Amino acid sequence: MAKQTVPPLPLPKGWPRRVRSAAVHAIALARLALGIARGQAWKASVANLAGRRHLPTVKLKKAA
């Protein structure tokens, strides 16, 4: 798997370190949640396609 590069996050220098850290953590958590959601959606669509490919062969066997 290729490692993605993340552009630097421009946060104001005047913000306290804890606030900047909290913002970075919140963004990282949101990125993780989106990645998991995309993975689950992809897995569901693949399973749906596999089920659709299986249905016509079952119907043909029952009709014969």
List the defining traits of the structure above.
1 helix, single chain, mainly alpha, rod-shaped, 64 residues
Describe the overall structure.
- The protein is mostly helical.
- It is built from 1 helix and no strands.
- It has one helix at residues 17-63.
- The N and C termini lie far apart (46 Å).
Shape: rod-shaped
Structural class by sheet pairing and helices: mainly alpha
Order of helices and strands: H
- What value does the average pLDDT take? 77
Radius of gyration: 22 Å
How many helix segments? 1
Tell me the major beta sheet: none
Beta strands, count: 0
Approximately how much beta-strand content do the residues carry?
A: under 5%
What's the topology here?
Layout: H1 17-63
Structure in a nutshell:
By secondary structure, the chain is an all-alpha fold.
